[in-house]
Each structure stands twice: as C-alpha cells, then as structure tokens.
Amino acid sequence: MAEVLTVPPVTARAAVTGKVITVRSHSGFRWVPRLVVITYLFFLVIWPVALVAKATFSRGLAPVIEALQQPDVLFAFQLTLSIAFWAVLINTVFGVIISILLTRYTFPGRRALSAMIDVPLSVSPIVLGLALLLVYSGRTGWLGGVLESAGLQIVYAPPGMIMATAFVSLPLVIRELVPVLNEIGTDQEQAARSLGASAMQSFLRITLPAIKWALLYGVVLSLARSLGEFGAVKIVSGGVAMRTQTATLLVEERYQQFGLDNTITAYTAAFVLALIAVIALVVVTSLRPKEEYR
Amino acid sequence: MSIKISGVGKRFGDFVALSDIDLDIPSGQLTALLGPSGGGKSTLLRIIAGLELSDAGTVEIEGTDATDLPAQKRNVGFVFQHYAAFRHMSVAANVGFGLKIRKRPKKEIAGKVDELLSLVHLSQFADRLPSQLSPEVSGSGWRSPEHWRSSRRCSCSTSRSAPSTRRCARSCGPGFAGSTTRCT
User: Fold this and answer.
1) What is the predicted pLDDT for the residue at B156?
2) Is residue B158 within 8 angstroms of chain A, CB to CB?
3) What is the H or E stretch that residue B85 is in?
4) Residues of A numbered 127-186 whose beta carbons fall under 8 angstroms of chain B's beta carbons: which are they?
C-alpha cells in the first residue's frame, strides 16, 4: 500500500480522500505514468514472484506436499513462526513505548533516539548480526561468557535469533505509530486526564483505539519482515538443521545443494514464506476501514 | 470553592508566558480572563487544571495545595478550544466518559447522559460519532465537560464560541457552588 503520494500543487482539482489522491489532467497522458509504474512493478516484483510460484509447482502438487512433510522443513517453519511471534511481541510492546516517548515527551537526546531507531533499517542485517555476536557470543562476547556460565545461551540458540529478528524489525512498528500519534495530538488525552482518567486509562481508552490500525499495520509489517529475516539470523544462529535452521536459512541451504528435490524444497519453502506474509498484509488491508476517523 | 494562585510563573524555553501571577478566584462566580493573544490566559487555565506544571508558585483549590496534584485528581473540568472530542466514541460515550472512568453504575451513567443530551437537544445524535455531526452541531459545545461531571468544583474553558459560553454559564448556575474560570 502506497502510504504517501507527493503531488505538486497543480491547478487541476485534487480530491484528497484519505490515502487516494486523484489528479484530473486534461490530456490522455494519464495512461503514461500508469503504464510506466505497472511495467516497473511487473519486472521488479510481479514476474519474479510469479516465477517462484511457477518453479514451486513445476512438477505438480505432489513434490510440494512431499517437501512440506520433511521433518527439517516442518521444524524450520515452526522455528521461524515461534521466533517471529516473540520478535513481534517484543516489538509491539517496545514499539508502543518508544513511540509514545518520542511523541509525548521532550527530553535531551530525543532527536538522537529518533535517529537511532532507523539504524536497523539503514545498516545491513549482517552487521547487526556481527554486533550481537560481539556482545553475546559465548566464547568471545563481552556478556556472552557470563550469561553462558549462568546457563543461558544466547548465540547459536533461539534467544539470540529472537533478538536479531526483533532488532531488525523494530523500526517498522515505530515508523507507523509516530506520525499517527503526532497527528492525533494531545488534546483528547488531556481531556481524558481532566475528566479523571489516569495515565493508563487515558492510554487504554483514548490513545490505543486511535492508533490501533496503525499499530496493527506495523505489527503485520514487522511480522512479514521477521518471517523473512535472513542476514542477522544467519550470523547468530549457525544454521544447524533441526536446531537453529529457520525457513529462510533452509531455502538458501537447499537451493545450493544439487538435485531437483532440493530445488523444489527450496522453492516450496520460499513460496510458503511469501504466501504467509502476503496473506497477513491482505487481511489487514481489507479489515482496515476505508474511512478512518480523523 | 475558591482558587488561589500565588506567585505562579511559567516559561517555554526563552518565552515567559507567566511571571509572578497572584489571583484569587472567588466561589460561585463566573470569572473571565481577558487579554491579547499569547498573553498567557490559556496557560494559566492549564496550570489550574493540572495539564501544565508551573515553574514557580502555588495553586490552591478550595484551601488545599493542588500544585503537585495530577490533573485527574483535581476535579477541574476543562473545555478545550478545539473541543477535543474522543473521535472513536459515540456522542453518548463521549458525554459519559467522566462517569465511566469513575466506575459508576451503567444505569446511572445512561440516565445522566440522557438527561444532559436532552438538555442540549442532542438526544437524536447520541449514537453518532463526532465526525458524523454537522459543523453546527459539533461546534455547539455539546462536549463541554461541565455537563458530564457529577462532582465538579470548577471548570475552565478556553473556548471562544458564544454558545458554549452561555451554556456553561447556565449549567454552572443554581445549585452549584463552583467557580468557573473562563477566558474569552
């Protein structure tokens, strides 16, 4: 969903309704930009993704079902889903807290914090994985040795993979929430406070209902990103089959092995990953009311 | 129930909004604060309501020091300049919010909401969302917290619209020992 369309102030009448901006132009040239965009998206997204689906089902349905019944494939998906679940949960809680901190309070270092939130988006996930390794690795990490002697293994185990995934997808929730929190302003919250609501009541009854769609959208984006995370997880997991191999790691491993079976397994896993993410996006987009309360 | 303001000061960065303000607001009266735009009228009201903390001085409400009391414990109603209706709640839920937050019985809330909405002739809009009201209706001051509160002592209004001013004056009339601070 294209969230922001920047349209220069044209003399043509622009009907701004929510997210759709319609500009009526005089000539038939309105087909040109559409054609350009559709061609661009076709070669960049639609065609390649369609080819993944085609490659998945190149030998019909039977090998796909067979691939999905392999124990290491099942394990990889279970691991991916549970890591995504925890990462999204952590991101939701901290995303809301950080967003409220950024929009409702002024404190020294607020701008620095706001810029820091974007680090996971701008720095390569592999670098983030290495950074986590430097802190939490059992042998070489700063904290890892202490935690490991306390019986808590972070790196090459699910906790580290959850951290890496949460790290990478944290900005998605915050970047959805901050503009909405800024737009609704503080009047309603202050009115609630003056009517006797505590800070928590004001948040639950006033703020949360106002940001719920943005939050849900952020959560789904975060979920989609978590399911697809590869680089950071690859570094901190070790990618051992049946232990720390997520679905994306399985796709890479199988794709590099010889044999048609492995290739089909790789494509099947890739297809299922894409399918889950797309379904989540479609469900949320269709649930979201067209006319939002503003 | 009087309000006594002594030595209140407030700065926003370099800008001095209030400096050493002393003011007694007597009980049972409508008090108006008049002044030019940016003169600090709203800031003073926000400090009285607890929506803003003063840098210096004290606020006494009814003889007790309320300087550090949070807004929800002050029992001061506040009408916002732009009404600040809860946009995801119906008109009835908006009006009943103050009672609901105090965990009053549902029946009592419904009765009070009905009473207040019929007082301002808005009963037929009870189930509408604020965004579904016509500008005339939504601007008529239906959201004034004065109407919703069962235990108010005083209310502040930063509203500039005449209807809400009149209505507020009426509702604060007989049977009310409250000081209304108002800025126009």
Assistant:
1) 57
2) no
3) none
4) 184
Q: What is the CA radius of gyration of chain B?
A: 17
The structure tokens listed for A210 are 């106002």
Please name which of A212, A108, A232 lies closest in space to residue A170, comparing C-alpha atoms: A232
A227-253 pLDDT, tens digit per residue, is 999 999 999 998 888 889 999 999 999
Whether B184 shows a pLDDT value over 60: the answer reads: no
Note down the domain range covering B23: 1-76
Kindly identify which residue of chain A lies nearest to residue B129, measuring between CA atoms.
Answer: A293
Residue of A nearest to B130 (CA): A293
Using CA atoms, how far residue A64 sits from A54, A80, A84, A227, A265, in Å, is: 12, 19, 24, 20, 7
Residue of A196, A210, A294 with shortest CB distance to B72: A196
Domain's final residue, options B48, B76, B104: B76
Please name the residue of chain A whose CA is at the shortest distance from the CA of residue B147. A195
B131, B157 contact by CB (below 8 A): no
What total of structural domains would you count in chain B? 3
Alpha carbon distance A187, A107 (integer Å)? 20
- For residues B13 and B43, membership in a common domain is answered with yes
- Chain A: closest CA distance from residue B58 (Å): 19
> What is the pLDDT, as a whole number, of residue B22?
92
CB < 8 Å to A197, chain B:
72, 97, 101
Q: Does A194 touch chain B (CB under 8 A)?
A: yes
Please list every residue in chain A whose beta carbon sits closer than 8 Å to the beta carbon of residue B149.
195
